[in-house]
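Readers outside the structure-tokenisation community will struggle with the description of the input data as it stands. For illustration, here is how one protein appears when written out as sequence plus structure tokens:
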Amino acid sequence: MKTILIMRHGEAEPLVRHDESRALTEKGCQQAKMMGQWLAKQAFSPEGVLISPYLRAQQTANQVLQFNSPRFLETCSDIVPNGNASFAIDYLETLISMHPDIDNWLLVAHMPIVSYLVDQLSPGDMPIFQLAACAQIEYDELTRKGILKGLHIPERVAAFQ
């Protein structure tokens, strides 16, 4: 079994001309930092990480990775807001097969693709993600199916730190 964590970026600046260049606000940095601290304390601290190339996702991942030390890290253009979730999951499954020693994967992306990614892994589950929320999926690489175990949000995890 693997754990796949699908995380939405933290709060970002209002819409600008080029969506991909929107930066995190101070609150967004704090949200991502809280989630990073919480993830580091869990049994599923990320070992493999895929990040959207958009600035706000990169900044979210940077905050999370202050507290986590993945062995595999890659920017992935398949997990942009209008990306194809099926292609992204096919790529993730390929990486899982190429790196069998990595048990915990983190994808940092955007709405709406984060919801579609969850549905691809755990059919019938398509949560609406709050900012910096992180879905936890228990994934069986043999059956290629997962179970959504929780949707964690910064406000709730902060209460446990």
The chain has five helices and six strands. The mean pLDDT is 95. Strands lie at 2-8, 48-51, 72-75, 104-109, 134-140, 145-152.
